[in-house]
Structure to design on (91 residues):
């Protein structure tokens, strides 16, 4: 019989409850990268994507998922407009 770590199970439940309680509260964290920067898009406590600036056009691009660097979902010239578009997707 497998022994269940009760503290780990409780911790997972608390994290899940926190994720549900903070869903819809967006935050944006700027990160430095080699040769540029990105903005992590956080919904509650979940990292849902990244914003990067296209070096050629100057447009801001949103990439779904924390590890996606190839296919952007949205592109806007104005960063605030892009943030509004991302947030409206989750309402």
């Amino acid at each position: 019989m497998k022994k269940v770590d009760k503290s780990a199970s409780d911790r997972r439940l608390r994290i899940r409850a926190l994720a549900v309680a903070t869903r819809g509260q967006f935050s944006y964290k700027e990160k430095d990268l080699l040769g540029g920067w990105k903005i992590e898009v956080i919904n509650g406590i979940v990292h849902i994507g990244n914003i990067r600036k296209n070096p050629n056009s100057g447009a801001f691009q949103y990439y779904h998922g924390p590890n996606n660097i190839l296919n952007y979902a949205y592109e806007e010239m104005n960063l605030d407009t892009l943030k509004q578009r991302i947030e409206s997707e989750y309402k």
Remarks:
- The longest strand covers residues 26-33.
- The helical segments are 6-22, 79-89.
- The chain has a mean pLDDT of 85.
- The chain has one domain: 26-89.
